[in-house]
Amino acid sequence: MKLHEYQSKFRFVEFGIPIPRGKVATTAQEAFEFAKEIGGPVVIKAQVLVGGRGKAGGVKLARTPDQAQRFAGEILGMNIKGLTVKKVLVDPAADIATEIYLGITTDRAARRTVVMASAAGGVDIEEVAATTPERIVRCHVDPFLGLRDYQARDIASGIGLPRETWKQFIDIAKALYQCYLNSDASLAEINPLVVLRSGELLAVDGKMVLDDNALFRHPDLVEMRDTDEEAPAEMQARQAGLSYIELDGEIGCMVNGAGLAMTTMDMIKLFGGQPANFLDIGGGAQAEKVATALRIILMDHNVKAVLVNIFGGITRCDEVARGILAALQEVKPHVPMVARLVGTNEAEGRSILAEANLLTASTLAEAAQTVVRAARGEL
Ligand code: GDP
Ligand code: MN
Q1: Which ligand is located closest to the Cα atom of residue 5?
Q2: 342 Cβ neighbours under 8 A, 6+ residues apart
Q3: For ligand 1, atom 5, which residue shows the shortest CA distance?
Q4: What tens digit of pLDDT does each residue of 85-110 get?
Q5: What residues act catalytically?
């Protein structure tokens, strides 16, 4: 689950990270009032759950309350990468000297939390990571020791921060680490963390991604979920209890079990296709769940073929097949479908599907090859 910028920053401040004390407006009139209250220049910032708002015209500096009102009017309702802006943050404008990047995430390969920082903060950090990765300083944290002062100091020196800001930087890095840990986050990021002309550090932007599997421990954070801002497919999947992750490929996958889903994606790639999603429908493939899964897969317009790969363990294959047929009554797919059912009563399951004109396969290799060809229009 992603948090909005304002939600992330309001969380940061609880851990002692300095942020601009702004307010969230839902109308241009409100933005006008807040700008007047703040006094002086403000920034009007679109609150949408995607990055690159600045470049998309969703961050504007306003010198007067009238200008704040006009910019808020322009930004509210704006479409940024498919999401409609419904709220803007009105922040007192910062007098920025330099912009740095500070982020914390999990380094799976190292099996540790990693703190990353760069002197090249701001709107182009992705490009920095891609073209000049040596400009990003990394430091792994021992889970039993936490982020130590000396490590944060190493980072500060590594990115060339002026010595008089090190103390502040260490406090902020440690606070961000605490915030990351206590929120069960998978990402906590400040970009940019700015050095003001006065020499103070300030978190001007904030981003947090929370681990969905740990949300049960954080009822206060769950409340922050903004369903308006979720991709409709992901929201439907969550409500139906399906694990669904959209990818860039053209082959929709409906699989039971996360391991089998990963294997299915690997096999599709092996035979030259690209999976359009990861989808684990879980145990007991009831018709309703299958229908929801199919609907979600077909919402993605890149999907050119669907592979259903089900292992019938406790659930019998004939039951799954009937579930698929019932789902097809409800959701009419416009693309070819290939099904592989193995396990209890597989022969019966396959014949039910073959009667319904579905392409069937008995091995995973055959299923993957068939669906790749189907997606290319070769069948
Ligand atoms: P993002 O594009 O979604 O990452 O939005 P940010 O909040 O990071 O803003 C993008 C850029 O706008 C920053 O890198 C700054 O250069 C600029 N910006 C944001 N807030 C302020 C501010 O208070 N004062 C000034 N001068 N620039 C700002
Ligand atoms: Mn940013």
Answers
A1: 1
A2: 310, 311, 312, 317, 362
A3: 54
A4: 999 999 999 999 999 999 999 999 99
A5: 101, 189
